[in-house]
Specification:
- By secondary structure, the chain is an alpha/beta fold.
- It folds into five domains: 101 residues, PriA, 3(prime) DNA-binding domain (GIY-YIG endonuclease); 69 residues; 183 residues, Rossmann fold (3-Layer(aba) Sandwich); 184 residues, P-loop containing nucleotide triphosphate hydrolases (Rossmann fold), CATH 3.40.50.300; 88 residues, Alpha-Beta Plaits (2-Layer Sandwich), CATH 3.30.70.
- It is 31% helix and 23% strand.
- Helix 10 links the parallel strand 11 and strand 12.
- Helix 5 packs across helix 6 and helix 7 packs parallel to helix 8.
- The longest helix has 16 residues.
- It is globular and about 100 Å long.
- The structure holds adenosine-5'-diphosphate and zinc ion (ZN) (2 copies).
- Adenosine-5'-diphosphate binds next to helix 8.
- Adenosine-5'-diphosphate (ADP) binds next to helix 8.
Length: 739
């Protein structure tokens, strides 16, 4: 047998080695190998039969640790991912074990400790005081510390001879101790304990069913917890987690993105503040050393609650009792690079393999998960009431076509209704959130005379006008250019500004509400470290009246004093070439509307739209998930879209347009041969984003009722097709992004 080894180091080299007789090596093991004339370390990715070869492979040198870094359940999960998504087991194992853990450069941080071995009698102390004052000083210090041990570094410089002598004479023992690099050690955040709340009856029922699943994981189905915004899902998560811990089990909490869900993370930290060091938060900004330490703390069972985004689904928790997936509908659970797995779906698989209980929670579940409750693959639990007894916020829809006529040709930004509502909130000392589905000074330049739009030469998307530095920026590839004074096409000096961004909203507000204090949350404004946290804290402390933001504010934020949420351009995102556009719009509107009226005050939501009658907007207005899903599912079924079929996208890209297209046409012909009966093969089409990063992109969409045969068919065709060197082909199973 041969071992395929990923060599440590930035170049990510992979080589095959022969396994010496008698060496018990498995996938996930750390090994030492010969590399050129040196020796190197690496991780075994897979063990396979040798292929026919005309040269002999070199042998592995030795096993660094017979215990593999990957547990059997995680290895099984990894194999499932490779199979289902059609990617190499190598790429999966790279994700399974973070680079920080594989790399030889990272190891546990240690320190030397001096431990008192025998209590010195007064005579020997006296003798030492005269003969060896340093030894005397160290002994005196040690006898005066409570636990009779001190880090050597605390004893000052130049003591090594004295320590050696003391050790030789049996007074002390020198030990090595691991030190944890604690990501929270800076202590910026004070965590106050937050006691369990008395559950209402809906929550009580939900908790009991989750607890039942924790107790009988082998027979329990995955649970979909569908609770309206503010129904107290988080409290159910917290108490369920407590029950799993009480049983001596561990808990994994997945959130869409750590930085965007600070309140959820904080609530877990506060609830379990008494066991703070047993909570591990896997941020993307952990240092390599911190990541190494957290990973080993988790594997040893020292961290019993792990909170993290998508990749935390691979956290090596032993004795897992419960997985919680918060906001399960969020697209960020899908990885956009190989392996292109969906964190939620992998979590469901891992739960089955462990086995352990799993809860997927959302106010607007994905239609995939919803469908699984209809077919009874998942168990549905609902929370229909807000936990604090408040009613759902009132949602008004404003027809912006009428506003446009009123404002005579100008693109309306703030309707009269929304402006008046903002004024009322200011008078009453209440806060508002304005939501905009774009970032930056996102205006495109369009010529009113000839219709010319300034576009990125690499990506074929409209460039965005940034006012602060007077330039046009491509938000796909970052290309910048100067702002033309005249239309490049017809030379007309009138260039109309079309569309707008958060900065423009800020400008309009400053004019109509001069006394209001506002702040902006978008990717541009939040570039500075801690900017997001600082702005949210200021808003919470009511130093800001109006918060203007993009998608970033749609997630689990909770502000009791917010009574008005304005959605400025609800249509944006409705008119994109993606069958999930309606679902996304419904989710976004419902989530954003859920930010209003979360305290003792009643909330109001104003939605501005050019298409007031679209079902996504109307059902979101009534907080009617059932109504929305019913009509949306009909459409999905009629066109055989997910969740009634699996959908994979095959994309080819190249700097040569013809070659990308031709490659895909060749693949199309081969895919058509022996096409399994229920499979639908789409045509070769330019991607909606035909040019990106200087490359041309074409795609084929495939659909099938069964997932595995779809992946297998595509893999088989790819395996027997030689691709031109300058064409890259990628396959995305269960794709969420069709751009
Ligand atoms: P969700 O996660 O479903 O949006 P949250 O868990 O954020 O809802 O709960 C909304 C608010 O209701 C929070 O302020 C929370 O503290 C409060 N809450 C939750 N459960 C209860 C309860 N049983 N009694 C009183 N307040 C509760
Ligand atoms: Zn023009
Ligand atoms: Zn570009």
């Amino acid at each position: 047998m041969n071992a395929r080894v990923l060599i440590d180091g930035p170049s990510e080299l992979v080589f095959d080695y022969a396994i010496p007789a008698g060496m018990g090596v498995q996938a996930g093991c750390r090994v030492r190998v010969p590399l050129r004339r040196k020796s190197a370390t690496g991780t075994v990715l897979s063990i396979a039969e040798p292929e026919q070869q005309d040269f002999a492979l070199r042998e592995l040198d030795s096993l660094i640790d017979p215990e593999p870094l990957i547990t059997p359940v995680l290895l099984r999960t990894g194999e499932w991912i490779a199979n289902y998504y059609g990617c190499s087991i190598e790429s999966v194992i790279r994700s399974l074990v973070p680079e920080a853990v594989r790399s030889e450069e990272n190891s546990a941080k240690t320190r030397r400790i001096a431990v008192l071995e025998k209590e010195p009698v007064p005579e020997s102390l006296e003798k030492l005081a005269k003969r060896a004052p340093r030894q005397h000083a160290i002994l005196t210090l040690l006898t005066h510390t409570a636990d009779r041990r001190l880090p050597v570094s605390d004893l000052g410089e130049g003591n090594s001879a004295a320590l050696k002598a003391l050790e030789k004479n049996g007074f002390i023992r020198l030990e090595t101790e691991e030190v944890r690099r604690d990501p929270d050690a800076d202590g910026v955040e004070e965590i106050l304990e937050f006691k369990p709340l008395q559950l209402n009856s809906e929550q009580e029922v939900a908790l009991e069913q989750v607890v039942e699943a924790i107790a009988h994981p082998d027979t329990a189905r995955p649970i979909l917890l569908l609770g309206v915004t503010g129904s107290g899902k988080t409290e159910v998560y917290l108490q369920a987690a407590q029950r799993a811990l009480d049983l001596g089990k561990t808990v994994l909490v997945l959130v869409p993105e750590i930085s965007l869900t600070p309140q959820t993370v904080r609530r877990f930290k506060s609830r379990f503040s008494a066991m703070q060091d047993q909570v591990a938060v896997l941020h993307s900004n952990l240092s390599q050393g911190e990541r190494f330490d957290e990973w080993h703390r988790i594997r040893k069972g020292l961290a019993r609650i792990v909170i993290g985004a998508r990749s935390a689904v691979f956290a090596p928790l032993p004795n897992l009792g419960l997985i919680l997936v918060d906001e399960e509908h969020e697209n960020s659970y899908k990885q956009e690079n190989p392996p292109r797995y969906h964190g939620r779906d992998v979590a469901v698989l891992r739960a089955a393999f462990e086995p352990c209980a799993i809860v997927l929670g959302s106010a607007t579940p994905s239609l995939e998960s919803w469908h699984n409750t209809q077919t009874e693959k998942y168990h549905l639990i609902r929370l229909k009431q807000r936990a604090d007894g408040q009613s759902m916020p009132l949602v008004r829809v404003v027809d912006m076509r009428l506003e446009a006529a009123k404002q005579k040709g100008n693109l309306p930004i703030l309707s009269d209704k929304l402006r008046t509502a903002l004024e009322q909130r200011l008078e009453k000392g209440e806060q508002s959130i304005l939501f905009l589905n774009r970032r930056g000074f996102a205006r495109s330049l369009q010529c009113p005379s000839c219709g010319y739009v300034c576009q990125c030469p690499h990506c074929a998307v409209a460039l965005t006008y940034h006012r602060t530095d007077e330039r046009l920026v491509c938000h796909v590839c970052g290309h910048t250019s100067i702002v033309p004074r005249k239309c490049p096409e017809c030379k007309s000096p009138a260039i109309l500004l079309q569309g707008y961004g958060t900065q423009k909203v800020e400008e309009v507000l400053a004019k109509v509400l001069p006394t209001a204090k506002f702040a902006r949350i978008d990717a541009d404004a939040m570039r500075r470290k801690h900017a997001l946290r600082d702005t949210l804290n200021a808003f919470k402390a009511h130093k800001i009246d109006i918060l203007i933001g993009t998608q970033m504010i749609a997630k689990g934020l909770h502000f009791p004093n917010v009574t008005l949420v304005g959605i400025l351009n609800a249509d944006l995102g409705l008119h994109v070439p993606d069958f999930r556009a309606g679902e996304r719009t419904f989710q976004l509107l419902t989530q954003v509307a859920g930010r209003a009226g979360r305290g003792d005050l009643e909330g109001e939501v104003i939605v501005q739209t050019f298409t007031p009658h679209s079902p996504s907007i109307q059902y979101a207005r009534k907080h009617d998930f059932d109504g929305f899903s019913e009509q949306e599912m009909e459409f999905r079924k009629a066109f055989s879209y997910p969740p009634f079929a699996h959908c994979g996208v095959l994309t080819a890209r190249s700097t040569h347009e013809r070659r990308a297209e031709f490659t895909l046409q060749t693949l199309h012909v081969r895919l058509k041969e022996n096409l399994p009966a229920d499979m639908v093969l789409g045509e070769v089409l330019p991607s909606p984003l035909i040019r990106s990063h200087g490359q041309f992109r074409f795609q084929i969409t495939l659909r099938s009722h069964r997932a595995r045969p779809l992946t297998r068919h595509v893999q088989a065709v790819l395996a027997r097709t030689t691709l031109p060197e300058d064409v890259t082909v990628v396959f995305d199973m269960d794709a969420l992004n069709f751009s």
